[in-house]
Amino acid sequence: MRILLTNDDGVHAPGLAALRQQLRHLGEVITVAPATEQSGVGHSITYLTPLVPKSIHRDGVHWAWAVEGSPADCVKLSLAELFVDEPIDLVVSGINNGLNAGINVLYSGTVAAAIEGAFFGVTSVAVSLENSDDNDFDAAAVIARNVIGEIVRHDESRGGLFNLNVPTAATESASEVKVVPMGLAQYGRRYEKRQDPGGRDYYWALWTQPDKPPAEMTDVTQLREGCVTLTPLHFNLTRDDLLSEMKEWNLRP
């Protein structure tokens, strides 16, 4: 199995190195990652400047390709050009430094890279670890390898898109994997207003939890319980339930 590995924390991030080491147990790993951190860029694609893959060496041998672009750029360039003659069987994005659960999925460069892989019909998995003072990326990488190994065993996963989140608690003691939907509660709505030395206002985004935690079981709720969460996603944003009804509307140009 040929595995394309990328991330949004940059080619030198420790989570990428830890996951690369574990994925080698599943197959050949090809690493193509952003040259610099791209957290929160979502599914941005570079159109106005060229993409130049630069070979990164470790211990005198090629280790990865660094691209001055977004995570989605890395996957798109790899699948459309760099390895078009050597098919990729699996795309893995991570390990991200910080969870990508709930509506964060919509902002995440980590998840966007996996979505890009799924665009190409390749089974794709985004992997994220809860941010803490002492992140154990090695332990999280073992968990990711085990879960990904099980995902690819099933024909139903072929070409699918999956979001895997690992809480800190799961790297410290035995945990469970919960297959759950993404949470839809809105959080992170507040900003702290400050002033610069010139008296101009500026705003710093704050990480805030929902005022009322959702009652349903989601990735957000289960991560709070210390469980690893796995969510199957898709990128079709069509409201199928409204399509037929809207055809009866009196819509005019």
From TrEMBL:
Q: What is its main location?
A: cytoplasm
Q: Which cofactor does it need?
A: a divalent metal cation; Mg(2+)
EC number(s) on file = 3.1.3.5
Name one cellular component (GO) term. Answer: cytoplasm
Pfam families, alphabetized: SurE
- Cofactor note (record): Binds 1 divalent metal cation per subunit.
Q: Which SUPFAM superfamilies match?
A: SurE-like (SSF64167)
Q: Where is the protein found, in the record's own terms?
A: Cytoplasm
Q: Which reaction does it catalyse?
A: a ribonucleoside 5'-phosphate + H2O = a ribonucleoside + phosphate
Q: What span is annotated as the signal peptide, if there is one?
A: none
Keyword terms, alphabetized: Cytoplasm, Hydrolase, Metal-binding, Nucleotide-binding
Q: Where does a divalent metal cation bind?
A: D8, D9, S39, N96
Name the Gene Ontology molecular function terms of this record.
Answer: 3'-nucleotidase activity; 5'-nucleotidase activity; exopolyphosphatase activity; metal ion binding; nucleotide binding
Q: Which residues form the Survival protein SurE-like phosphatase/nucleotidase domain?
A: 3-187
- Purpose: Nucleotidase that shows phosphatase activity on nucleoside 5'-monophosphates.
The family annotation for this protein states: Belongs to the SurE nucleotidase family.
The protein's name: 5'-nucleotidase SurE
Q: What organism does this protein naturally occur in?
A: Rhodopirellula europaea 6C
Q: Which gene encodes it?
A: surE
